[in-house]
User: Fold these one by one.
Assistant:
Number 1:
Amino acid sequence: MDDIAVGTLLASTLRVSTPLILCALAGTLSERSGVIDLGLEGKMLLTAFAAGTAAAVFGSLALALLIAVAVGVALSMLHGYACVSHRGDQVVMGMAITMTAAGLTVVLGIAWFHQGGQTPPLPDAVRLSPWFSASADLLRDAPPVLKALAIGLLGHNIMVYAALVLVPAVAWLLARTRFGLRLRAAGENPAMVDAAGVSVQALRYAALSLNGVLCSLAGSYLVLAQNPSFIPHMTAGRGYMALAAMIFGKWQPVGAFWACLLFGFLDASAIRLQGAPLPWIGAVPVQAIQALPYVMTIVLLAGFIGRSRAPKALGVPYAKTH
């Protein structure tokens, strides 16, 4: 494989991994505070629809992002109201958000745009443009390794670079700040946090707020960068992949990041393997190659969910005893 092919594969891996990274970070923050979030898929889908709708109607990138964030935070607040304030079943609530989003986006899309649930194609003015493309072109004649890195790392949009920056930022937030210490304590021993005079509910709502923002960025990326318009069910299980990556990464941002890159690499490789003959095997069916990331999700969940230690109070509603 030459340097151009390696660089192109690296670039594709980063592009495909970006929504997974953002969503996995969202799940990490929520679950480290003690709130299970199986609604990652639904939050990402509904915010993608919100971003696509706002971009198509108003023609403004900033407004599309703002509306998507508002929708994502509202969904997380609804999640918190049901599960934190009223101690509802967190698994059921997460699945309810996902199922509602899957149906609501189709119904509203058909009613508003009359295109089978899709939004109209978005103009370039409301899409995320690539950065550092000129720098990548200047390095085309560089040594092979530098050339491959230039092709792989330069020319992405701001959301890709934001995802890469957010991984160490969230890791630092959880490990090095007072807020992060209290957040992790709320997921491990909420009674101790309460005894120290800190509100467990407030910490979990704060974690869910950040969760909503990150899910919104992941959903917006699908419409404003990866696809030219919103398509029904376009998340295609990415929320569950992010959940698997978070578990495989042991609820740590850096570990989840590497797992997301693995999923992204498999997805990017699958695109390139379609129709390509393999030694001793021949042409592999396209459907088998497309299923690789999902098979890996099942393998990771089946093989590592028992070995990874979840936060002790994860999924356990907390109520003050006095």
Number 2:
Amino acid sequence: MVERAEPLHTGGMADAIVPDDKDWTWVLAAVCPECGFDSTAFAANEVGAMIRANAASFATILAGDIELLRTRPDPATWSALEYGAHVRDVYLLFRERLALILDEADPLFANWDQDATAVAERYAEQDPAVVSLELVSAADALANAFDAVSGAQWRRPGRRSDGSVFTIDSFARYLIHDPVHHLHDVTAT
């Protein structure tokens, strides 16, 4: 994550989103107190099915009333549409990163600024039906890629620029927390 001195403004909206600069790798060792996610409660080879189920839940949500989908619960929290667009992009990014881990020896992942992406891609203004289709497609591609991982491949490493090292196993567990947490974000209220 990239830290900013000023609040982020998404999609031309005047509501400030505080950039998320937390290191969420702690979810690999502890239960998330907000969404209840436990990265040790499943086998990594179950992640493909978990991704598909999450995408189906988001697709149901994104079929709702467009005005409600665009409404933020508070000025500093993304709307359901913005979360859906973010989850789509997470699935796309992690598919690229998984391919890197499988194709290269200990690759270093390029940085990704999720908040800058939200602004540049105008998440709040996207068509929910298109976001839903793209999210399900991206989820299916990523789930298929995880389903194809076997044996020693689960131990192949990849790194972030901040020094965090993942194996495909820990990468899968780390990944799935994000969409699970964001589904909780949009359904908890």
Number 3:
Amino acid sequence: MKRIMLFVLTNIAVLVVLTVVLRVFGLDRAIAQEGFAVGPLLAFSAVVGFTGAIISLLMSKQMAKWSTGAQVIDGTESADHAWLVQTVRGFAQKAGIGMPEVAVYEGEPNAFATGAFKNSALVAVSTGLLQSMNKEEVAAVLGHEVAHVANGDMVTMTLIQGVVNTFVVFLSRIVGTIVDRAVFRTERGFGPGYFITVIVCQIVFGLLASIIVAWFSRQREFRADRGSADYVGNPQPMINALKRLGGIEPGPLPESIKALGISDRPGWMALFSTHPPIEQRIAALQSRG
């Protein structure tokens, strides 16, 4: 229920902010004079902006399994698998969430958590990570992923993505309308200038929106690191795990779940990176004492 309310309030907040911005700059009157209906556009933008993000969230767990080949385990397969399941169960109990599914997939060192609901999430680790870390470090990584679930990071990122998508869709069409009327002098309907401008603006605004989403993603990594330290009772295992990750090449993840991993290759520009530098994450944990 809380998540439903958060979704509804977020949509309302987006519409209110866009309405206020248009009113303050007088754009609502200017657009209305051109015969352009702002209200329906706001509603259309919100629907388009959130629909894709929500569908991706609802499908995230199944898509993650399919794209990585992750195999869900129940602990009966081996002693190592039993330890993984028991460790995740212990952290889930501390976090006050339902037991996530636990999965293992073939690949270079990495791990991720995903799922639309706190009580039915998925925590997965790669064989490369299990082979390159000791149990204390693996436990810290599992705690990090459970913290993502407990913090509701998947839903939060979906809402943020929906918000920025709404702005991209709305503003692109507003700019397209202005350019079409003012530059190309289209008097009725929409001319080619509108469609060209909308496409260009969606690319430009989409890139700017990616910077915002990436910034929020980096902040949640710090919170998940702190969550791991709290579950383990000591920040040192997570620090050691991060140091080890800093010395190896992280395994690539599919684009749809790349931001959900424990680590990632540095982006070509820091502003677009979904994970903070390892050094910053270690420093943040060390500052906690």
Number 4:
Amino acid sequence: MVIMAACGQDKDKAQISESTLTGVAIATHSSSLSPEEFRRYSNASKEFAEKLFGNGRLNGSLLVAKNGEIIYEMYSGFRNPRSHKDSITPTTPFHLASVSKTITAMAVLKLVDEGKIRVTDPLSVYLPQFPLPDVTVKSLLNHRSGLPNYVHYMERLGWDKKRAITNQDVFDFIVARHNDIDIGAADRRFSYSNTNYALLALLIEKVSGQSYGQYLHVNLFQPLGMKDTYAYTTADSARSLPSYFHNGRQYAFDFLDLVYGDKNIYSTARDMLKFDQALNSGKFVNKLLLDSAYSPYSFEKPGTHNYGLGWRMLLLKNGKKVIYHNGWWHGNRTAFYRLIDENVAIIAFCNNDSKMIYKTKDMADIFGNYFHDDSEKTDAITLR
């Protein structure tokens, strides 16, 4: 099943729906774009999406919005792409994989905004048992802590894969085995590591006095109206969307699947647009903190890629900037691209391990001069 929707200002097309063999196209009233602007952006987005994902090549969600208004949506496929049961809809939450890091980071910055955390503080100020005094909150946020990825070293150093790892296990393992872990010097170089965000989730819990999921629900999801978004726990096993290999075989639950902060938020494209717009409004955290989150911190290697506080970025030669994060966990592939200058969000999710999700980055050219020059094209695939 395919559902395609667009929203526009043209009075002649407002409130009109057109049923087709492949789905439903819907036009509704829009306030910020002229009919000509809406038509141009919507048609270009549709053409791009159908070329990339036509003939059933998307098992997931795609949403494109400008000024907070949806100009194109596509919902295609099924919860189980092999059995063709239970269609993907706008309210189907997908595992965000590493796009979850953007939410974890903004939750930390909200606590900073409230004066409960200082980004320059060592983590040990809040978690006194932590044995690495040079690792700061900031170096966790921008992946400059020197901590390697728990996904790799805990198994290598003897963790029993029959036991599911928790965030507390990640912390306790560092406390007990830090001399056996190949830990680099803090703030010497960028090294992307899920460990950083597993620890940040514990920081949120310690400072707030709530579980990670409770804090996000009360302080982010509920206030922003993200009603289809949640942080996964084992109680969500029955409702959570499974993921699949490209051949349709389902991924099994494994010993890494309970750790959160680095992953394990489920959400919809529409809910993530609400998150995007809350950030753009400056009401969720103040503008100075957002500017720091969108600033690059790693310059060891020249190039267009960099990392802020919870956000990847492309710093293009023509001065344009793409704020984004991608994700990959099991068969979940996710992309969240934000064009701050044009107030555009491009959001794409799948649960069948399709790398084509990341090609939606090139939709930026519909709204500005981003990748027209082939020398600027980059492979934005981010593992986990």
